[in-house]
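Dear Dr. V.,

Thank you for agreeing to look over these. As mentioned in my earlier message, I'm a first-year student in the group and I'm still getting used to reading structure tokens, so any feedback on how I've presented them would be very welcome. I ran two proteins. I've put each sequence directly above its structure. The first is here:
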Amino acid sequence: MLVAPEVTNSATPEYSVLDLASVFEGMTHSEALAQTITTAKEAERLGYRRFWVAEHHGMPAVASSAPAVLIGAIAAATSTIRVGSGGVMLPNHSSLVIAEQFGTLVALHGDRIDLGLGRAPGTDQLTSSVLRRNVGAESADDFPNQVVELLAWFGVIPPLENGIASSIVAVPGAGDAPEMWLLGSSGFSAKLAGLLGLPFAFAHHFAGGENTPVAFDIYRKNFAPGIGGSEPRSMVAVSSIVADTVAEAERLALPNNLMFARMRMGGRPSRIPTLAEAEAHNWSEAERQFATERNAQQAIGDLDHAKGRIAALVEATGADEVLIVPQGPDLATKLRTLAEIIG
């Protein structure tokens, strides 16, 4: 069970969306990305605050390997909703390249662009080494330095004395800063976000458990007013499926749960199985237990159950914003979930 920290948020939180550009068996990448853009348009119509996509590599189930490109397409297809990354895995990239990419997005679309930054690779070690062209692992440990360097290239902080950012200008980039967030699934990024005075988002949708409220407590205890504002701002991501009954929602969650269970148990990444494939699967006891525990941590059920889970998560974390991760075996299920959660 989640344990509430000392500070909770009694106000009604804002709602945003994290879309994983899901690729199911039998689906093309074009279809998956088209569904993401359709979902973004509907999220805007429903009144969600922001729409994020996440960087993953070598994952057959996720088509958002190039978040800056996808964000540009989503921003062009919408007009009011904030669009951004949840997140860009900064150790995979040169900070200068990210400054130029997101500076370009801001130059094109104005103050609608968010840059959420993570330090995990978003992939396996082999793929990570190819992305970085670096056989060492020090790039993840250098994450705080990369964040500060990125802030300098955006012109949010002065150029670093004797640093690379003091002699190179990001164009676009300098003067074109997006709204920046630090993302995490542990206390490391929570503490760093607090020390830098940046907003913080926690990935409860895949790292849910007792550590969720702890991370928010760490963030607030370490928060110092800074570049992100004078008060802490936080967001929690939660997977959600809304159906007529809890049992039906759990049935619709079978494909995603089967994919995650296989990966947790050492299987190779694959596309998300269809609902028929997941229902026909001979579930092991370990797989069933994994699915049950995952469902209990997320907002999967009828509307009252799903909203109750979200309310409990907000009470436990004090989050100002909830990042809904709509799931399900088809687009209709995802869009229904978004409509009912915010309705």
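The second protein is here, in the same arrangement:
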Amino acid sequence: MSDSPFDGNTGYRDDYIKHPLKLREQKEKEHYKPSNVPFDGMTTFNRDFTKKHGLKTESCKPNSQAYQSDAPLDDMTTFRNDYRKWNGEKPYVHVQGEYVRPEGEIDLNTTNKLQFKAHPAQRIAMVKPGDGGVKFPGEFSGMTNYKADFKPWEMTREQPKPREGWVPSNVPFEGCATYKSHYTKHNQAPPRSMKPNASNLASTAPFEDATMYRTEFVRKAADICPAAVLDTKVSPFCYVETDPKGHKQYAPCQETITPMRRISSANAPRVPASVFA
């Protein structure tokens, strides 16, 4: 903290000096001069749109009075006029004559039976060769064109050519390669399983079952609905009367024992049964 007074001089206060302003010149307002001509209240609407006298519009509504006539009802319709009952004749029905069997016997000989007669036919000889077959003398020659033209030729496997300057070693192979001598097998422990333990977490502490529902939502005693115990000994209301609309009227029962008398419906407090439903 400093003890020196605060220097509040700024560039704005030093450079921008406040100059007095001149007063604004105000024009003199012209005073209202009323007109000497009297006011004419006639407007364009009143002059052009004058009131016309016309007749009252006649109603186009039909007369609601029913039509009545003393003439008898003409029940001749288009159906009765066009479709009249005509005297028709019954249709002609041809009556077939009785069947008369022709004389003589029926000839069952047809063109097929007369022209195509059965002729004796010989049995067809089998063309299948015999079981023994024909045997030719001499030895069987198995020489074919394939065997004569395509003969097996002697072929030798081409040996690999050795590299220049390479001399094979005379030492016998020991049977151990560089991979087996350098990369030896090491005994490794099996990887540890990251799977969580399936056993439940057991604890000897007692189970704390105090929940928010049990601590805040305390069970409260519910009152019995008065409508459920009406017309019983435990009901605090007694039946008074039934009104013209069919509603039963009940009133609170008196605690003190008094002689039974009828309570007027005007003085007794009425409790409709529909209130308790």
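From my reading of the second output: Residues 256-269, 271-277 have pLDDT under 50 and may be disordered. The two ends are 81 Å apart (CA to CA). Does that match how you would interpret it?

Kind regards,
E.
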